[in-house]
Design goal:
By secondary structure, the chain is an alpha/beta fold. It is built from 18 helices and 14 strands. A six-stranded mixed sheet has the order 6-5-4-3-2-13.
Length: 511
């Protein structure tokens, strides 16, 4: 009986937690996109009758359920490959998840603190606007973690049509407006206000029709002729990747895979495919450079580059052969690639042995690589998750490229999530995207965000296909965050003004 009483008392709190778990299934690899509407709708319903403090707690539980099931793979990189003890890895991962859960918690508090009235404006305007503002804040607060943004769940939904217009945050907004409409419709059904319900359903359907119509717009045009590319998936296990005794077999594997594809003008190896600093790898790179040049091929590869007069390194991408260029990673992963607050946290990091954890960020603004006459916006691994880092006003960008090593996360869902995030960047920019990963998933993404071709995970193979570079600008390229931030402010201001009018009416009636 005591157990039953506990569940009865905490029913809504438990429901909030499992609603967060449900949201994970809207993202890759599950891609059950309608859940991205139903899950926040459940949370909004649970928020409506409670105080701001109770809304904060339920939002935090929701965040624990969501982030605990969607980014649990951080534990794998810390414990399995970072060699941290089980307890320490669990504490770090749990702390990270608890911190992320504060964002939906803050959403609940702000919503019920400043918009206490249960009306349509609160559900359809304030609720979505606050959520998206906090998503945006999560993308830059403490260097940012723009992973599993709500809009990323809609790659296979008609709502993805909003991505080239307002970016992933615009897609998140439309999804949440749909959640608010759903809750408003249910609330009015209970009250017997059926005319309002019909209006809500019409608005819901209209948003989906507009999103579907936008998917038929071609935002960019072909640039030059299609070009053949070969993406090399070396499939080097993470536990031996940085081992000195496995260096030669690793280099020989990439060489043998590459030499069968000298007919492709562009060949790409993944992040840190050469697990050796550039200055130490010259004896390997120079003959490879000459061989690639003899075949008029541009070979792109990830490699560490030691910073001059320092013990720090850049996580870099170099182009050798027909073209010569360098890209230095701009946005590093905290703890994985560098230690924030080193004086305070260095003792803790001694317990974690992660290769390339003493990296430094590029001092300059990221510039595209010029390869075979094509401008290729290049990003290393985690960088592709940042919408504002990827967006460029340059109409001549022909392709996007991400080199990564998702072996850090084992056979978890992280690899599928990473590729889906990259697909959203391709859709926002209207560009083809080359996604090259050590163990997979290596893929070529079309400008509409759909997969053109891909390799299976954990397989040593080369993906060769023809890619059409594009040019021009999507609306997102032209306006970036300006349009969506203005829209969010208008939604909040309109709700505030509506509440003030209601208060005036109530005061007038009381007189």
């Amino acid at each position: 009986m005591k157990r039953f009483a506990f569940f009865k008392t905490n029913r809504d709190n438990i429901l909030a937690f499992f609603a967060g778990v449900l949201l994970t299934f809207s993202f890759a690899p599950f891609s059950l996109f309608p859940l991205a509407i139903f899950s926040p709708a459940i949370l909004l319903w649970l928020w409506l009758p409670v105080s701001p403090k109770r809304a904060f707690f339920r939002g935090w539980l929701y965040g624990l359920g969501f982030f605990g099931t969607s980014v649990y793979w951080v534990y794998i990189s810390i414990h399995t490959f970072g060699n941290a003890p089980v307890l320490l890895a669990a504490i770090i991962t749990g702390g990270f998840i608890a911190l992320l859960a504060l964002f939906p918690a803050l959403n609940g508090y702000l919503l019920n603190r400043f918009f206490p009235e249960k009306n349509g404006r609160k559900m359809i305007c304030a609720f979505p606007a606050l959520w998206v503002l906090l998503e945006w804040m999560r993308s830059w607060f403490c260097t940012g973690f723009p992973w599993v943004l709500l809009g990323d769940s809609q790659l296979y939904s008609p709502l993805k049509g909003f991505a080239p217009v307002y970016g992933v945050y615009g897609v998140s907004l439309v999804v949440l407006v749909c959640s608010g409409i759903l809750v408003h419709a249910i609330s009015n059904t209970i009250k017997g206000k059926y005319k309002s319900v019909y209006g809500s359903l019409f608005s819901f359907i209209l948003l989906w029709l507009i999103g579907g119509a936008l998917t038929f717009i071609t935002w960019t045009q072909p640039q030059g002729k299609p070009i053949q590319v070969s993406l090399v998936q070396g499939n080097i296990p993470q536990d031996i990747k940085w081992s000195p005794e496995h260096l030669q077999p690793t280099l020989e594997r990439y060489l043998s895979l590459t030499r069968a594809h000298w007919d492709s003008p562009i060949i790409i190896w993944p992040e840190a495919a050469i697990p050796l600093p550039l200055r130490n790898a010259i004896g390997f790179i120079m003959p490879l450079n000459d061989e690639a040049n003899a075949h008029h091929v541009s070979l792109i590869t990830g490699i560490p580059i030691k910073k001059e007069y320092s013990d720090e390194y850049f996580n870099a991408v170099i182009v050798i052969g027909k073209d010569n260029d360098v890209y230095l990673k701009h946005h590093l992963v905290p703890f994985g690639e560098y230690t924030p607050l080193p004086t305070l946290l260095k003792p803790l990091m001694r317990f974690i042995d992660i290769p390339m954890s003493n990296l430094t960020a590029s001092p300059g603004k990221p510039q595209p690589l010029i390869v075979q006459g094509i401008k290729i916006s290049t990003f290393v691994c985690y960088e592709i998750a940042y919408p504002e880092l990827v967006v460029s006003p340059d109409s001549k960008i022909g392709m996007l490229l991400t080199v990564s090593n998702d072996a850090w996360f084992g056979r978890s869902i992280a690899s599928a999530q990473h590729l889906a995030i990259a697909q959203m960047r391709a859709l926002e920019m209207g560009r083809p995207l080359l996604f090259v990963s050590n163990t997979g998933t290596t893929a070529i993404v079309k400008p509409n965000g759909m997969i053109q071709s891909q390799l299976p995970r954990d397989k040593t193979a080369v993906l060769t296909d023809t890619v059409q570079p594009t040019q021009g600008k999507t609306w997102w390229q032209r306006r970036s965050m300006d349009s969506i931030l203005i829209l969010l402010m208008l939604l909040l201001v309109s709700t505030i003004k509506y509440q003030r009018r209601l208060k005036k009416k109530m005061k007038t009636k009381m007189r």
